[in-house]
Amino acid sequence: MDYRKFVEDRLSEIKATVGSAIAINALSGGVDSSVVTVLGHRALGNRLKTVFVDNALMRRGEPERVLKTFRDIGVPVESVNAREEFLAALAGLTDPEAKREAITSTFYSKVFSRLVKELGAKFLLHGTILTDIEETVAGIKRQHNILEQLGISTERAYGYAVLEPLKTLRKDDVREVAKVLGLPPGIWQRMPFPGPALAARIVGEVTRERLDVVQAATAIVEEELADCGAFQYLAVLLNDRATGIRNNKREYGHIVVVRCVESRDAREAAVTRLGWERLTRICERITAIPGVNRCLYDLTPKPPATIEYV
Ligand code: XMP
After folding, report:
1. Tens digits of residue pLDDT in 88-117
2. Ligand 1 mean position to 193 CA, how many Å?
3. Is domain 202-297 annotated with CATH 3.20.20.150?
4. Reading across the β-sheet that carries 23-26, which strands appear in turn?
5. Under CATH, which number does the domain 3-188 receive?
């Protein structure tokens, strides 16, 4: 594939479609939305408004890191604090699709449609990739960013048209495009992170307390596995408790699962054969998180499992 030509074609397409209107896009810091942000800025300059929505579901330090990266490359990004709105929408929900739906509708119907109105945007630039569309259409899982493919008219529902410049690409192609665009390796080398963020890694209800646990476990896993070269590694909080002993007393503690997989484009995945020493160290650190007394390593490939848990 000729990635330079791909970039040129998409720039012309965005310019022609948006014309003199204003477009908006949401940056999460992942490679897909980062590529869309840079493409959009090249095509539209300051007629693209990029927002970073803090939904309370990010990894520790993530909002600060993303904003700094884009400040450093000179692309203006506005940060929007929507933490309370997302937590309120997720309160009491345990069903995976209901949680996804709550995140999607809070994002699009509330936070985003408010921003679109404030900014007068007529277009939304979206980082949908081919795998998102395929898995959603096949009914495997509804990726949070799929709307049109499910017959949802964003123009009627939310008042803007959606442009998806990456919808013919898979993850490895997006990384190549990111390189062509001159994005820093910190962006194109980043491992995938799901749209619903840590809500995809909390089985059951998303609460502040449960988010704290999964954030702490995620930080440990990412630190310990940073050099392992796997496609993706993560920590998941299960919706159950296990009996344990701490300070000679019985406790019902949280159960955290560690997952680490090899894959080319996330459609299939094999489990990484991590060394025992590394696994033991991760287990020790994770069970030192207050309230966590069990740490498991997931040996299931995709299929039959998916990479994320929700
Ligand atoms: P699954 O869990 O479906 O994930 O095997 C495939 C890849 O996509 C990433 N990802 C998402 N997963 N909902 C998801 O369930 C999303 O909205 C989403 N966005 C990205 C996931 O991290 C894995 O790499």
Report:
1. 999 999 999 999 999 999 998 899 889 988
2. 7
3. no
4. 78-81, 48-54, 23-26, 123-125, 161-163
5. 3.40.50.620
